[in-house]
Sequence to fold (83 residues):
Amino acid sequence: MSVLDNWGQWKEFLGSRLDQAQSQGMSNGVISDIAYQVGDYLAKNVDPKNEQEKVLADLWSVASPEEQHAIANMMVKLVQNNG
Fold:
């Protein structure tokens, strides 16, 4: 089972990666850029595995690059606040 199969596991996975990046001194700007790159990769290369991912994929597909950055930043905030 992939971490992408379950929304809760996906958020936990992202949260642990975020903690790891912050503990290594990565700036919020770099984290934001990486989140955008991951979101863009997933949108282009990975089929959504659950309803939450389908919503994110749909939003990403109609968003401008600036809006996509905002979506990525919101995912970072989501895992920060739930972690």
